[in-house]
Amino acid sequence: MNIFVDSKMGDDMRRRELYRGSIFVRFPVPAALRLCRLAQELIEEAFPGVDPLRVHENLTAESCAGVLAALKPKFIHHPRAKQYIQELLAEAGCDLEATFFDVPRLRTAYPGDYLKSGIAYAFHPHRDTWYSAPFSQINWWMPVYELNSENCMALHPHYFDRAVRNGSGGYNYQKWNEESRFNAAKHVHTDTRVQPHAEEPLDLDPQIRFVCEVGGAFMFSAAQLHSTVPNTSNVIRYSIDFRTVHLDDLLSETGSPNLDSACTGSTIGDYLRGSDFSHLPETVIARYRDRAGAVELVS
Ligand SMILES: [Fe+2]
User: Which one, of 24, 257, 2, 19, lies nearest residue 140 by Cα?
Assistant: First the structure.
């Protein structure tokens, strides 16, 4: 596994590296900074007169969840967010005709036990491929405010080539969307919605925590095991993540190997073309969406 820092490698070769488990750390670029500033503006507007990093000291978890329930979709669907992703992809050397992205998510990680579920779900160790992501999906992650090693995200790359028993066989993305995603704001203290978890003890160490600057980012394969770091700092972490897929790789079924994902359905309908925000061709969507779970896990 390699870590490429501020690499100028072309996108075709970069994707091959990512599919093999490499990680790319990107230095700040103007479009990513614009995206972070948009998130900052919306956050500060949503919590007027409150230090955005210390909302937990001023608001009850219920009030905060109520604000997030409006703030997060506002960011996700903001027209400038899509435009900045488009610019960011161009700056990263991606072919906008063949690269498709999903809308950027705004995530939060609160100190201690404040708001750990629902709208601010703290992600246990998982691969996105347990959640119906294609094996050629690439995740992009960036902090909105200054990050520290106690409130960031961790990758567990020693599991990249090691299968983990997990509950992905019971997960179907389409079904999840229909049944429970829109109820996230209701789950303030506990989250009863069924999600794929590891079903064996995990060694989370060694782990890698990328503490990048605002406007910086790191990219990794959707098949990498990753988790939210328990926030032991006294400040809230806000971060942005989005995902990309490349049409050629979807057509040729190039991507990371599938060791242990058995979910059904696909996130394939979510991606928008970098150039004009159109969806993937219907034939590609149908091919991935209708696919049954790929791996039968044995004990
Ligand atoms: Fe994830």
Answer: 24
pLDDT tens digits for 6-17? 999 999 999 999
Confidence of residue 161 (pLDDT cuts 50, 70, 90): very high
How far is ligand 1, taken at its centre, from the CA of residue 49, in Å?
32
How much distance in Å is there from the Cα of 299 to the middle of ligand 1? 25
Please say whether the beta carbons of 262 and 293 come within 8 A: yes
Q: How far is the CA of 226 from the centre of ligand 1 (A)?
A: 6
Residue 94 Cα, ligand 1 centroid: separation in angstroms? 22
Quick check: pTM over 0.70? yes
State how far Cα 165 lies from the chain centre: 21
- Distance from C-alpha of 102 to C-alpha of 245, rounded to nearest angstrom: 9
Domains, the chain, in order of start with CATH, read 3-289 (2.60.120)
Find the 241 Cα to ligand 1 centroid distance in Å: 9
| Pairing mode of beta strands 105-109, 237-246 | antiparallel
Tokens of 203: 């060694």
